[in-house]
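Workshop exercise sheet. Pairs work together: one partner reads the sequence aloud, the other fills in the structure field after running the prediction. Swap roles for the next sheet.
Pair: D.N. / O.F.
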Amino acid sequence: MRKVVAFLNEIAGIMYVGGILSHIVIGIVVGTPDAGTAATVYQYKLMSAYILILPGLGLKIACDLALFFVWNERANWMKVKLAMIAFLSVNAFVFLVPMMPDLLALAQASPAEAPVSEAFHALEGKEALVGMSNVIPLVLEIIMGAFKPRLFAERRRPPAAA
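Structure field:
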C-alpha cells in the first residue's frame, strides 16, 4: 500500500507542478494583449487550476499526511516537506485561486478588442508576485520528497539499519 501512496504522490506532483508550469507558459507565450485574449487565457488558467493544480495539491497533501500518520514517516525531511506544502496550500487556496475569477471577470468586462484595464494589470501583478513566492517552497518540497536528506540533528546520527 505504501508503494501505491508513493505512486499517487508522483501523479499528484505531475498534476500540481504541470498545472503551474502550464500557467507560466501560457502567460509568456500568449500574454494579455487585449481583453478577449486575456479572458481566454484566464478561462484556461481557472479551469487548469480546478482540474490539475488544486486536485494535485490535495492529493499531495493526502499522500504526505498518510506517510506521516499511517507509516510514521517522521524524519526532518518530511517535516520540512509538510511545512512547504502548508505554505503552498495557503497561497493556493487563500490567495491565488480566488484571484482568478476576479481576473477573468475584469478581462470579460472590457470589449474583446480593447486593452485590459489598469485594475486587471494591478491584480495580475499581485497574482504574479504571490505566484513567485511559491518558487522556493515548491523547489524545497520537491527536493525533500525526491532525495529525503538527513537534516539538522539527523546528520550527526548514523543512518538506521534497513
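Discussion prompt: The chain has one domain: 2-151. What would you look at next?
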